[in-house]
Amino acid sequence: QLSKWNSVDTYSPLPRRENPRILITGGLGQLGVGLAQLLRKQYGKENVILSDIKKPPPHVVSDGPFVYADVLDYKNLRELIVNNRITWLIHYSALLSVVGEANVALARKINISGLHNVLDLALENCLRLFVPSTIGAFGPSSPRDPAPDLCIQRPRTIYGVSKVHGELMGEYLHHKYGLDFRCLRYPGVISATTNPGGGTTDYAVQIFHDAVSTGSHECYLRPDTRLPMMHISDCHRATIEFMQAPQCQLSLRTYNIAAMSFTPEELAQEICKHLPQFKVTYNPDSVRQTIADSWPVRFDDTNAQRDWGWAPTFGIEEMVINMLHSIRHKRTNE
Ligand code: AKB
């Protein structure tokens, strides 16, 4: 008798929740391919489209849909969104801090004009839009230890200026027109299989490759330069959990997310626990050192913890073990 009442067909069916249809711009950078893999596991291969202006390597093509998309080409982007019935847009196209300083005009175009195209299309097509921001959105007059979500932001790089502009534009369009804009400020992201392209925090990836291949690394920052960092798997998980969070839980639209904070010297010491012969020399480069000195040394992410349950899994010890293991594994399989 009971089983009759518990059987599914006695309930009226709940409305079926459709999977999101996701487009990732700048998908061949450090973050896109890994994020697409995780999203495809949850939502299906065909529902996650990677895009970039570069030719994808064969493994990316066999993983799932890949299309050409230039964020500066509004019509091309619109066609992709409409034809593929996109509902979530993850906007990873951007020039990072160091390459941005080397080519300010291009950084302005991609990071600001490209973002305007994406914001307009997100509004027009009622998309949930994710745009990453960064520790680089802060500057020398910001509180640095820790940097809270809301404080003075006067960055001194075109990258930082474009990211603050993105945060403000997205929040403005959210408040004025209801755009479902979501933005996380990422720390430096550390990954074994994909390389960052032209950032200030890149040493924290290169150091592992050098430790495994040559046993020595020349660092372009001073040994005491402390910066917030995060393992890529925490970064991906934060992005997905934040995208899935119900709107009513979000008291902000731009959140800091934190995991660990270390100096090159501390990182080298941690690597030496596993590779005692490893040697690091320091040859600070004035452009990168000046940028790093203007950024926060720690992030306050208490709002992300409270509102949508953010919690990292990797500290420096776990991250170093994972990086050394993954890089060794990759080298033996090449
Ligand atoms: C960079 O160093 O430019 C980036 C960042 C922290 O946003 N990795």
Automatic annotation (TrEMBL):
Q: In which pathway does it act?
A: Amino-acid degradation; L-threonine degradation via oxydo-reductase pathway; glycine from L-threonine: step 1/2
The record ties this protein, via Pfam families, to:
Epimerase
The record ties this protein, via InterPro entries, to:
Epimerase_deHydtase, NAD(P)_epim/dehydratase
EC?
1.1.1.103
Q: Does the keyword Signal apply?
A: yes
The segment(s) forming the NAD-dependent epimerase/dehydratase domain are 22-258
**Which reaction does this chain catalyze?**
L-threonine + NAD(+) = (2S)-2-amino-3-oxobutanoate + NADH + H(+)
Record carries keyword Signal = yes
Arranged from A to Z, the UniProt key words for this protein are: Signal
Write down the top EC class of this protein.
oxidoreductase
Q: Which function does this protein serve?
A: Catalyzes the NAD(+)-dependent oxidation of L-threonine to 2-amino-3-ketobutyrate, mediating L-threonine catabolism.
Similarity-based family: Belongs to the NAD(P)-dependent epimerase/dehydratase family.
Q: What is this protein called?
A: L-threonine 3-dehydrogenase, mitochondrial
User: In the record, what lineage is assigned to the organism producing the protein?
Assistant: Eukaryota, Metazoa, Chordata, Craniata, Vertebrata
